[in-house]
Design goal:
The protein is α/β, with parallel strands linked by helices. The chain folds into 2 domains: 3-123, Response regulator (Rossmann fold, 3-Layer(aba) Sandwich); 132-233, OB fold (Dihydrolipoamide Acetyltransferase, E2P), CATH 2.40.50.1020. Helix content is 28%, strand content 35%. The protein has helices spanning 12-23, 37-46, 65-72, 88-91, 106-123, 174-180, 226-233; strands at 3-8, 28-34, 51-55, 77-82, 96-101, 132-137, 140-145, 149-155, 158-163, 167-170, 186-190, 193-196, 200-203, 207-212, 215-220. The strands form 4 sheets. A 5-stranded parallel beta sheet has the order 2-1-3-4-5. The protein has a 5-stranded antiparallel beta sheet with strand order 10-9-8-12-11. Strand 8 (149-155) and strand 9 (158-163) form a beta hairpin. The chain is elongated.
Length: 239
């Protein structure tokens, strides 16, 4: 499911920088960009978006980012972008998803938008049409197809992604991979393992099994992760 978004920033260069990042993320769909926050308000009177990338300090206009959120309320998610980190704390009074302090790298941007993605997926009853994500590998952003992943195993700052037909080795911590994965498809079961829910073949007291090449790979279940695993596999339905 695409996440519609707009950009509001009084600096053209900042907008161009952000548009370049947005173009790299398949699940983001840009609906417009504005240097004047009042024009963005007018746009939102007749159009609905899921996410607003919003600058905080805009001294040449009648309203700033905080005023913008006061007017709009919580009709959409906000990711704030600013050169002034002192605005971070007061901004969270308005259900801000994340706060990006300029200049910010693509990895940090991706982490922020994946938070919005996870929130959108949790709130939606529609099937998820997004089946891939991107991780940074040696200066490039490599696509990973979620439907192909069986499990992910880590050792220190290295991870191995086991797929149906391959094994991908990356020099990144498992926490960075976890931020990219949609929580409705994957679950952390151990400090060193993340598994695809639909690939779980059996669950025992201290381990679970996933089939690969006609064999069952046994993966340990960490005590701290057992409850999360069971809730993910056997969710409690509300009456």
């Amino acid at each position: 499911m695409a996440i519609t978004c707009i950009v509001v920033d009084d600096e053209e260069m900042a907008i161009e920088h952000l548009l370049g990042y947005i173009a790299k993320v398949p699940f983001l769909r840009l609906e417009g960009s504005f240097t004047d926050p009042t024009e963005a308000l007018t746009f939102l009177e007749n159009n609905s978006v899921a996410l607003v990338f919003l600058d905080v300090e805009m001294p040449n206009f009648a309203i700033d980012g905080i005023d913008f959120m006061k007017i709009m309320g919580s009709k959409q998610h906000y990711i704030l972008t600013t050169s002034y980190p002192q605005y971070a704390l007061p901004s969270y009074d308005y259900d801000v998803v994340d706060f990006l302090c300029k200049p910010y790298p693509f990895d940090r941007f991706l982490k922020a938008v994946n938070k919005v993605r996870a929130m959108t997926e949790t709130a939606s009853d529609e099937p998820d049409s997004d089946d891939h994500g991107f991780v940074r590998i040696e200066g490039k952003h490599q696509r990973i197809d979620f439907t192909e992943i069986l499990w992910i195993e880590s050792e220190r700052n290295y991870v191995s992604i086991y797929t149906l037909n391959d094994r991908i080795n990356l020099h990144i911590p498992i926490s960075e991979i976890e931020e990219v994965l949609p929580p409705k498809l994957f679950v952390r079961v151990h400090k060193s393992y993340i598994v695809a829910k639909k690939r779980i073949d059996l669950i025992e007291k201290e381990q679970l099994g996933i089939k690969k090449d006609s064999q069952t790979r046994l993966i340990p279940i960490g005590e701290a992760y057992r409850k999360t695993l069971m809730q993910a596999i056997f969710p409690i339905k509300k009456k």
